[in-house]
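User: quick one
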Amino acid sequence: MEEDKKDKFLAPENEIRQVTAPDGSIIEVNPLEDYFSQDRPKPYKVRKGPVEDFLNWARAESLWVLGFGTGCGSIEIPPLVTPRFDMYRFGIQMRATPRQSNVFVISGYLSVKTLKRAIRAYEQMPSPKYVVGLGSCTINGGMYYDSYNTINRLDHYLPVDAYIAGCMPRPEALLAGFEGLKKLIKAGKGHKANEYVENLDWYKANQKKIIKDWNMPDYNW
Amino acid sequence: MVGPIYIIALALGLAFFLGFFGKSLKTFSGFVMLAGLAGMTFISGQWLMAFVDGSATTQEIFTAGFKPPFSINLRMGIEEATFTFMINVIGLLGGIYLFNRLKEVGNSAMSVFIVLIMSLNVIVMTRDIFNLFVFVEIGSIATAGMIILDKTSKSLQAGLKYLLATGVISGLLLIGIIFAYYFAGSLNIDGIIAANLMASKAGAVAVFLIIAVLVLELKPFPANGWGLDVYESSNPGFGAIVSAGTATAGLFVLYKVLPMGGDAWYQYISIIGLITFVGSNLVGTQQKIANRLLGYSSIGQIGLVMTVIGLQPILGDAFAFIAFALLLNHFLAKAGLFWISGIIKKENITDWSALRKNSALLIMFVIFIFALIGFPPFPSFFGKYELIMSLISSDNIWVAVVILIGSFAEGIYMFRWLGHVLKNENSEEEVLDIPWNKFIPIVLVTVSLLAAGFYSVPFVAGANYFYFVPLAFILFLGLIDFLPAYIKNTVSIAGMGYYSWLLYPLVEGDLMRTIFFAIFMFGGILTLVVGYNKSGKREGFYPVALMMYAGLATIVTTDNMFGFFFGWELMTAGSYFLIIRGKRSKPHAYSYMLFSVAGAYLILLGFGLAHASGQTQALIALKDISVLPTLAYTLLAVGFMTKTASLGLHIWLPGAHGEAESDVSPMVSAVLLKAGVFGLMLLFLYMGEQTGDTLLFILGWVGAFTALVGNLAASFQEDAKRMLAYSSIGQLGYILFAIAMMTQLGWLAGFTYVINHFLFKAILFMVVGGIVVKAGTHNLYQMGGLIKKMPLSFLAVLIAMITMAGLPPLSGFAGKWLFYNAVILKGWYIQGVIVFFAGTIAFLYAFKLLHSIFLGQLKDNHRNLKEISPSILIPVYILIAGIFYFSAFPQDVLEPIGNMLANYFPSTLEWAADGNAVTILSNWNGNAVMIIIISMFVLVLGYLWLITGKTQKLEQFNIVYSAERPFRPETTHVSHNMFAGLNKAIGFLVAPGITNFWNNVSKMVLDFAGVVRRLYSGNGQVYAIHIIIYIVVFYLISIG
Amino acid sequence: MEYVIMTTGFALAIFGLYGLLSQKNLIKIIIGFSIFTTGINIVMVAIGYVRGGIAPILDNEGISQIAAQKSIVDPVPQALVLTSIVIGLGVTALMLAYVMKLYQDKKSLNINDYKNLKW
Amino acid sequence: MGKKTLIVLLMVAMAAVLYPLYESYQGSEQLTELGQYYADNGVQDTGAANLVTSVVVTYRGLDTLGEVTILFLAASVISFFLSFKKEDRKESREIRNITEILTTASQVLIPMIYMLGVYIFVNGHLTPGGGFQGGAVIASGTLLMFLSNPDFKLSHKVIHYVESTSGVVFVLIGVLGIFMAGGFLDNRILGLGEVNTLFSAGAIPVIYTFLGLKVGTELSNVLGIFVESQNEQ
Amino acid sequence: MDYSIEKFLWAFLGLFIILNWGMLMSALMRRIGAKLAGRIGVPLYQPWVDLLKLMSLKTWLSHGVMYYIGPVFRLVGGVGMFLFMPVIFGIEIWSNYSFSGDLILLLYFQSFGMLGMAMGASESGSPHAAIGISRGLSQFAAVEVPMTLAVIAIAIQHQTFSFSEIMAAQQGGIMNWTLFTNPLASIAGMLAMLGAMSHSPFNLVKAPNEIPIGPPTEYHSSFLSVLRTNSAILHVVEAALFMNLFFGGADSWYMYIIKTFFVYFISVFVGMVFPRFKIEDSIRWFLKWPTAIGIIAVIVAAYW
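Assistant: Done. Structure below.
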């Protein structure tokens, strides 16, 4: 991975640069290494037992959805807060920052450019975290299957907990999808984040194969 | 003993004799001249000695063996001996100084020089009016000759103007003399005095002409363009003779002749002197040419002495000392300055930075400047102090005011000049050529100046030789200035420690003084400890720092007004030098000095009024001021407020404190500002609540607005040290407000603020100063994220900031609690709310400072920074220990102070056994709050730790950034214009209105000076017209 | 008689002064100065005059010493005027020397051309 | 014309200032006390018949010393200040031809003028005149010399010697007065002699002689320097 | 001075009650809000579930020491406000640790948590956090002016800063409440409360879509749970503060709950009705009308 970083296009802001310290000495700054933590993530320990079941219930009943619209399907999310659908009654709410979200809805096709942001946002979310693929595009590329600039299979890049098929699925389908996710979590199967961490090399290889201007650390804490 | 007549014989004989020597013997003739001058000096000096030890009585010398009035007689009394000695000394030193130049010009120049000095001697000694005229003329002609010693086009013009002017005035003198003879039948001055010419109108006119002309010889403003040109264009060595010698003789003549006119004339002379002193100094404010500036200053100083001569009947016994002290001071200092000017050879004062190449010369220059403005320990200080006291005691307040205005105007240009000298760019190539014969005279006058200051002590009530002890130590530090800084630092600390121990008995038992004493001395030592992190020699730092502390120690230990003022001025001088050491401090030190000088003068006036009421120098006189009490208290309060930088008088502070060196800022901010507070506290205690009711009310409002504006401005600052400086303004506003309430709680709050401000501002300035040096920038937005590099600094600043913001449980809250109770009990609600608002704004800058320096994004060039030096952290943590002690056990500190205050105010605060402070309104238990908060903190921290697993450490860019990433630390750090919203809403409150106001005031003064100085058109004829106009106007005022 | 002299003296002094103050030519200014001092000298002489007095030389020729002692004019102003004249001479000479040098410097005798030093 | 008007007004004002003096002048019927003293005692005190001389040289001898000093100063100043900056002087003055009459007449007159001058100062204590007057006459002779002979150059050395000697002697005589008589410049160091004779009045003739020499040389010197500096132009 | 275990336990019980009441209240408010919008709204247990969820998360990231203890400061601030104020009037066991100080202590202790939290948030290095804090502090400064005026007016009126005395003075009927005895001060104080609660229209500090929820933008999992705990406590305590000052305090838990609910409801209600202020407008607003009313209140109280 170190090598192919070198052939890839390196953004100017990530080039190694030299600055003069106040005492006159020269400091070399390597933005990608100095500004970001280089640590590899570790899988968390999955416990079992009634306490964990209770906590899983709590996790399932408190789904905080990251409010990022990644594709055309994101138009289907806002109706969820309207009186007609009212997702709040299911314990689902939108959060503005990845740090406080558990659910990432990939809403439809994912261009390569957006994939990079999606990876970053996903990695910044605290575990356990869940990915919901919304629409056919996340499954097989959908109508964009031969586009030069979109991915076809989301689960090559991020571990997906649930898919909601359709093009586009209606908000009701979304709610149904969330209910499905809840069931998974309650069943103690909501630990895809660990899968991602365990197979990090595979995911990273896939990601870097398609993202030419990587320009970020291997793992975005 | 050698008779005084031999002065004449010797001088003239030598002058004529020099003609025998040809050109080849120039050096020899030069030494002959010097020998002659030395002989003259010896004769007068020997008489002076005899008079001083009482072995001689006043001698009348009759020429030609006949008694006056039939022949000319000379007198040699103690006055004459003194003045001739002064003149001869300046002649001798001037001769040495001008030696090479005189030699180049030739024997005749030496003759002229020696004749000039001789004529001045005779002018002093003669008792015959016509003889006086003759020797005045000799002096004029010799002067006209010496002007062209440096023969330049300018000096030629000046000489002609001089001749025209003196020609006109001597003609008028002659008319006066001949009619005086006509009416009095005598040419003897005593005979004319006895004849009382003032009885008849014509006689009065004759006297008028004589005195007016003698006044004109002293170049009164504004009929003095010719004199200024002489100063500007002639050789500075000769300028010294004119300024010191000729003027001295002229003043003595005036003194001698003035009895002819009787009482009315004394008044006129004092008015003329005042106009000259103020006018000349005012016009001088616009001047850039060094020698002309010295000319303005000379004329001003002579005007001052003239005023004193005019005030003779008022001053009574004090006259001799005052006049002589002022004259001697001018005499020595001005001679020295002119001589330095001759070495520097720079026309424009902005180029005078060349002086820095020689530190001895620089120090002497500084001494002369401070002597001229009237700083201790120079004779002018003693003289001016005594003068103001006597004037006010004799109900001449306006004269005192005008004199101080004139002095201030002099300060305006002198300190500007000093600023140029100390801070302007200096070219490396030029070398300062200092021949020994030019150097020695300057050293001698400097030493004389210091000695004169020392010997002034017995003449001023309240003065004490003890005040010179620290000065001697400072001198010692100056002498060991070549040693490395850490040695001097140790010596200074030891010296201060010893001095504190020495002085402690003076404050023991007086808690208020003890507190301030502790802040000054202990704070001083701590701030000096910080100095250990400085490498190199730190030339000139220790003497001035110790001078400031000596001043502070004097202020707090003295029990009389003189000592207070002495200390005050000493402290001002020392702090000025400390402040101006900063890289960009020139304008700030300048405005600091101007405000300080103005403030000191107000204090002096106030003291004068107190002295006039109580006829005592003891500070207790402030208690019952019967002469204009409101004015006196207001003056004193405003004077002290210049030091505490209250609103309207604060504009000097941010720059002065912000640009100072890293260990000077805590000195001036944490320690020095308390001097003003001490002054105010003293004042308020003596004044009492009833007397100062309205004043206190106004000061309360001023304090409230000061707090608001200071804090608001601090929150909009981008410069770390300026932010702290503005914060000081705000904090001092609280203190002013608190003590203006004049209740026990208010004062207790005031004391709490004083102690807290000392503690936290010292911490803040020390740490921030250290960081600023390390980070290489003052700008907050160029720092950030330093918490990981400097955790100890962060902790210190955090604690200091929590204290400052008044958050419980730290001691800042003690002040706030007391303050609230005081406000409600006093009934100053709205003001109190303003102060509270200011307090919440303090959070803003507290956060901004902490965030911008320590939190947020670390800058690339700071990646390798290390923690600041232990020599800073050790004193800082000592102070933090102080904060914690005060916070946990406020009772230990506040109860004794409260008890002490109970002597002055009704007690409204009680302490329960468990440390609970109770007023009728409220209660607060600092101890309990501390315990509860710390326990809670521990519990909650434990809880968080319990529910948190192993944390992953992140780097600075591991932040959520809307799924993007930051580019650079610089663009990710939020600091610049941080409180934009607040600024939009109420930023207008800190629009630089006050700065603009003072700028406009100074611009108006300078413009006015610029207009007035157009009088000096440069045309010699116009100057002659001025003289005639002066005579006519003067006539109309005095007689017509 | 003495009034005539006195008047003349004062008038000369005033006119001389006027010349000194109003003329632009340096030489004329000096002439004004001379007239001014001359006027003053005349005033001085007039002051010493005693009506009907003779020169204060007691050479026993003409009248007796005792009579002479009663009838001479005052010698003091005469002595003073001598000094005054000499002083005037010295000053005038010096002024002329200055003017000469100034003329060499700038080739002008107009006083308005010598205003390099001002303010 | 504003300025001229101002000056005229100023002169009027000045006249008004001086007017009280003029008005008060009544003329004198008798001597002042001081004048009377000189008239009564002058001759006895100083031995000089010319009271003006006795006042000038003895009673007010210090003034006279001052006068001498002034002339000396003027000469010195002029001399040292005309000796500067020689390099500037390029142009030379056109000198008119001197007429034969002037040349010849001056050869006759100059010695006589000098003689007259000497007479005046030697007899200063007896007749009107004295050192200054005599010296001035001598200087006028020198002036004539300059007029008649443009190339004439004074010997500065001689002048300086004469001048210095006279000055020093004058001072020494004054000092002698302290030791031998009542005080500085007392003329009674020599016998007063018989009034109205040449060798009378103590040191007055001596003083006047040297004074005359000094004044004569000094004035001549001043003239000489002026002429020289003119020539150099 | 009572540091006994018993006292501690009573205080802890009180804390537990108001924590749960605070969570319930926030769920209630959200439901009321939902009803206004025609929705059903969150289940009443949602706050507890959220809290539990946050505590059960498995990722803990730390930006530094200050970041770590920022929430501690915040919670200490909230808990401290609770502890320094008597809960139920006249009952010793519910007086907490109010012997350590009174209204003044509380006014200043308000900012303790805020400043600590600000430190923590800004150590994260997120510009959004810093922007949020700068807004919050600016607004806080302005809010405090009418607040102080109101407090001073009350202090003048009752000649005390002590809670129990202020509450005592309001006993004996609704007409004895400061709200009626000193209506101007109450208006000023309640307007200030709108700002202190930082609900709309004064919630630009936490503009979720502009500066992703402002100061706590980097906080997550257990740190966020502490912050949410605090906000539950703080909402009740703030409401209780105003209740004590203006609405006669509470002489029983029953009254406590009703009054705090309504006081809190006022701010939520205003938030539902009004849109958001820009920060400078909000400062101007606070320094204009509430301040004017407050000044009049002080003048009336002092000189009537």
